[in-house]
């Protein structure tokens, strides 16, 4: 029985790359099943949850865990989601080492319990981030099948220097030791080829069946927002170019700026943004409901700030926008240049505003058809086929 154990982020986090791949690999003829190990919940987050506090992701996960348990079977495709529990320790040096050890044992204990409980003998490991302690794969048998590098976490300014240094070391180690090393973007491919030459670039994909349809009727919380509506979908955080957002609100107050997703920004910035009547935060929406929102907007935006961290991105949201057939304006970050034929790319704030004005004035049936055709080239089914082709030579004789 060959089971793939994937170390991911949060299972409920808007159905991004990790969830999309694992959901589909659970049906692959190459495997007998998939186990998805989330990043640990903490006892402190539970206390905050009990008193109505904590961040939105943690609250959502605690509701699921209390309803379905720390080991949950997600139907219909038989993915088991494991949620470790630990006590967080903040600091550097000794405290950081102790925090990593506690996390390591929480993950290892829960995975070992699951494997013993279900009689799993052949374990294949998939690591999708460098937060995992280096010893974890070794403690679980050392069969690291794939390391899927999705972002340059060691360049994220919100993490302290000592944490970014550890991320870098872990990333390099996993890249070298995995049987298969995959990356999501051009930048990451160039960077990781300095570590090994056989790195495989597998970009993100899109659910054409979900976003290529007509969606539902106009959502109730969108009806009161005047047009034109400019939307940004996804996690709302410090990676955004908030100075550009404020400039849009100040110079084009007739444009409604709609943000759909969990908000994780400093309270001061959020209060400042809420002063603009044209900025609307609608919160996190169910994945299947997003198509209904996209149907009733005018322009889709990608607002990442041009930074070292953002240059490694291959944004999934661009493909969602294209699959909905909507015009897209983006800052010049990540792999957006690959989609320049269908996405308006702005290298300055002035150009960004001009491009929005341009697409609002004129959008054609031919342009919409071109976006849909481009999106159809990037389905998640095609991405899983690429993954299976990469893994197949390393799975001979495993089952």
Describe what this molecule looks like in 3D:
There is one protein chain. By secondary structure, the chain is α/β, with parallel strands linked by helices. The chain has 2 domains: 2-205 and 380-394, Glycogen Phosphorylase B (Rossmann fold); 208-376, 3-Layer(aba) Sandwich (Rossmann fold). 40% of the residues lie in helices and 17% in strands. It has 16 helices and 16 strands. It has helices at residues 17-25, 43-50, 56-68, 94-117, 135-139, 161-177, 186-192, 208-211, 220-223, 242-251, 267-273, 290-295, 316-323, 349-361, 365-376, 380-391, and strands at residues 2-7, 33-37, 41-42, 71-74, 79-82, 85-86, 122-127, 144-149, 180-183, 200-201, 229-233, 256-260, 279-283, 299-302, 328-331, 344-346. The strands form 3 sheets. An 8-stranded mixed beta sheet has the order 4-5-2-1-7-8-9-10, sandwiched between helices. Strands 13-12-11-14-15-16 form a 6-stranded parallel beta sheet, with helices on both faces. This is Spore protein YkvP/CgeB glycosyl transferase-like domain-containing protein. InterPro entries: YkvP/CgeB_Glyco_trans-like.
């Amino acid at each position: 029985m060959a089971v793939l154990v994937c170390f991911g982020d949060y299972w409920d986090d808007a159905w991004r790359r990790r969830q999309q791949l694992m959901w589909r690999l659970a049906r692959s003829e190459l495997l007998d099943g998939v186990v998805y190990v989330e990043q640990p919940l903490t006892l402190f987050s539970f206390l905050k949850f009990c008193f109505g506090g904590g961040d939105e992701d943690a609250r959502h996960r605690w509701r699921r865990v209390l309803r379905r348990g720390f080991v949950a079977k997600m139907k219909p495709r038989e993915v088991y989601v494991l949620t470790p529990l630990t006590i967080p320790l903040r600091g550097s040096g000794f405290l950081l080492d102790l925090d990593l050890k506690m996390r390591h044992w929480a993950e290892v204990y829960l995975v070992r319990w699951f494997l013993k409980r279900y009689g799993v003998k052949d374990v294949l490991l998939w690591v999708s981030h460098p937060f995992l302690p280096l010893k974890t794969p070794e403690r679980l048998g050392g069969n690291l099948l794939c390391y899927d590098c999705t972002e340059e976490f060691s360049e994220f300014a919100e993490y302290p220097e000592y944490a970014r240094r550890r991320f870098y070391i872990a990333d390099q180690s996993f890249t070298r030791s995995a049987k298969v090393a995959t990356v999501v973007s051009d930048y990451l491919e160039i960077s990781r080829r300095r570590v090994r030459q056989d790195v495989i670039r597998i970009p993100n994909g899109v659910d054409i069946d979900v976003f290529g349809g007509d969606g539902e009727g106009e959502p109730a919380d969108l009806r009161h927002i005047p047009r034109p509506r400019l939307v940004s979908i996804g996690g709302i955080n410090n990676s955004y170019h908030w100075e550009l957002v404020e400039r849009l609100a100040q110079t084009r107050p007739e444009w409604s700026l709609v943000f759909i997703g969990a908000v994780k920004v400093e309270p001061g910035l959020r209060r400042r943004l809420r002063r603009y009547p044209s900025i609307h935060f609608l919160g996190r929406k169910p994945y299947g409901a997003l198509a209904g929102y996209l149907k009733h907007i005018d322009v889709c935006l990608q607002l990442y700030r041009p930074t070292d961290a953002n240059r490694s991105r291959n944004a999934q949201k661009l493909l969602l926008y294209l699959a909905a057939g909507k015009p897209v304006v983006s800052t010049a970050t990540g792999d957006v240049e690959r989609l320049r034929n269908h996405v308006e790319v702005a290298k300055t704030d002035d150009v960004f505003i001009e491009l929005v004005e341009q697409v609002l004035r004129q959008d054609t049936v031919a342009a919409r058809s071109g976006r849909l055709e481009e999106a159809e080239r990037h389905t998640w089914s095609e991405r899983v086929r690429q993954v299976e082709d990469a893994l197949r030579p390393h799975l001979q004789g495993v089952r």
